[in-house]
Write a structure and sequence with these properties.
CATH architecture of the largest domain: Orthogonal Bundle
CATH class of the largest domain: Mainly Alpha
Strand content: 15-25%
CATH topology of the largest domain: Trigger factor, domain 2
Protein name: Trigger factor
Shape: extended
Distance between the termini: 60 Å
Pfam families: FKBP_C, Trigger_C, Trigger_N
Helix content: 40-55%
Number of strands: 9
Function: Involved in protein export. Acts as a chaperone by maintaining the newly synthesized protein in an open conformation. Functions as a peptidyl-prolyl cis-trans isomerase.
Family: Belongs to the FKBP-type PPIase family. Tig subfamily.
Largest sheet: 5 strands, antiparallel
CATH superfamily of the largest domain: Trigger factor, C-terminal domain
Structural class: alpha+beta
Low-confidence stretches: none
Number of helices: 13
Domain PPIase FKBP-type: 166-265
Order of helices and strands: EEHHHEEHEEEHEEHHHHHHHH
């Protein structure tokens, strides 16, 4: 088989050839004979089906298999000539031309994407200066006060007064649509924090000013997007009785408080707690500093300084992803305009190309950095992060993991984790940790 295989650059190659009718027919005979040995067709003993019968019954499928066999042979030979290993390929080869001629020949042109060769050079010299963040006493005191309030027990107020914003109002309530009570609309001795936004809009505001044992009709309208379709958009009346008012009494910040906050520490004091708070605040501040300032600056510098070829198919995928995301935010009129004028889509693709190239380049750089620094993220680590985030959002971790798997998000999540891990390591080294 004659073919022409050329390297466009280090990351792209093109294979062109004409698959002759004779080659396709030769392959068709071969796959038909193989099929005849295994097919079970009524009227014939298994393995004794005549090849002519197989060709007649499965003509289309055999032709596809014969063409696939010729293409596999073409690609294998071309990659060998170009000295491209299978492990260096990115994705599957794509067809830019597949033209069946009247004489039975097939003209093909195949694009091959390869992992780019990246010379990182002295990449550590490009790391920006890292300034250690300091935490002052005021920040520590504010966090201590927050902890004191958060851990404070609810206590019944000593003097009887009206409900105000921030109070915990202990109420009975029952909701009605018209004269009919609805499911889930009733509770007794419910501690509702006024201003928390826990109830539907307008409810909590009407509790303000109520006094002990006062009864009141609270009139509200359920939001149009409310989860229960039977209630969505409807006006409801809640019959409310206020029993008592509770408030949180902040705990005194002393060594006993420190022991409650640090149960695993041996004889902790307020000073111990302050040191722990300082460590937490500093970690949070440095993480934000790394994430929002240093990491983007470092990646931008690497993208600017390092030059290497990028696989065009990966750039096209990135453009397609960005284009689809943009289209999802467009109005019906805008989408219709795109459908009627293909040049507008091409203009959008050109606008997105520069950012797509930067994104793809950054991804390959991070991959090269990770290899240079011996950094990896296991599939188990990815799963743990997804589980943790799902639990934080109150969602089922297994359902979220399945959704991400089906949507193909896991490789991107893994690469994001690798990026965070390797650049954090380099920044920590720069800081002298």
């Amino acid at each position: 088989m004659e073919f022409n295989a050329q390297r466009v650059d280090e990351a792209n190659a093109v294979i062109s050839a004409t698959l002759s009718k004779d080659l396709i027919e030769k392959n068709l005979d071969k796959v038909a004979k193989q099929a005849a040995k295994t097919l079970d067709i009524q009227g014939f003993r298994k393995g004794k089906v005549p090849v002519a019968v197989v060709k007649q019954r499965y003509a289309d499928k055999l032709e596809q298999d014969a063409e696939s066999e010729a293409l596999r042979e073409l690609i294998t030979n071309a990659l060998a000539q170009l000295e491209i290993k299978n492990e260096d390929l990115i994705g599957e080869p794509s067809f830019s031309k597949f033209d069946k001629k009247e004489n039975g020949d097939i003209d093909v042109e195949i694009k091959v994407a390869c992992r780019p060769v990246i010379d990182l050079g002295d990449y550590k010299s490009l790391i920006p200066e890292v300034v250690e963040k300091e935490i002052d006493e005021k920040e520590i005191a504010e966090r201590l006060e927050e902890m004191s309030k958060a851990s404070a027990p609810l206590e019944k107020i000593k003097r009887k007064r009206a409900v105000k914003d921030g109070d915990f109002a202990v109420i009975d309530f029952e909701g009605f649509i018209g004269d009919v009570a609805f499911d889930g609309g009733k509770a007794e001795k419910y501690p509702l924090q006024i201003g928390s936004g826990a109830f539907i809009p307008g409810f909590e505001e009407q509790i303000i000013g109520m006094k002990y044992e006062e009864q009141k009709d609270v009139v509200v309208t359920f939001p149009a997007e409310y989860q229960s379709k039977d209630l969505a958009g409807k006006e409801a009346v809640f019959k409310v009785t206020l029993h008592e008012i509770q408030e949180k009494v902040p705990a005194e910040i002393d060594d006993e408080f420190a022991k409650k906050m640090l149960p695993n520490e041996e004889n902790p004091t307020v000073e111990t707690l302050k040191e722990k708070i300082k460590e937490q605040l500093k970690y949070a501040e440095m993480s934000k500093y790394y994430r929002e300032e240093l990491k983007p600056a470092y990646l931008d510098k690497l993208v600017e300084e390092l030059n290497f070829a990028l696989p065009s198919s990966v750039i096209d995928q990135e453009i397609n992803f960005a284009l689809n995301s943009k289209v999802r935010t467009m109005s019906e009129e805008e989408i219709k305009a795109l459908q009627e004028d293909a040049s507008k889509i091409e203009d959008m693709r050109n606008e997105l190309k520069e950012d797509a190239e930067k994104s793809v380049k950054a991804t390959f750089i991070v991959d090269a950095l990770a290899k240079a620094e011996g950094i990896d993220v296991s599939d188990q680590e990815v799963t743990q992060v997804i589980y943790y985030e799902a639990l934080q959002m109150g969602q089922n971790p297994q359902d979220i993991l399945k959704q991400y798997q089906e949507a193909g998000y896991l490789p991107a999540i893994k690469m994001s984790m690798i990026e965070d891990k390797v650049i954090t390591k380099l920044l920590d080294e720069k800081l002298g940790k």
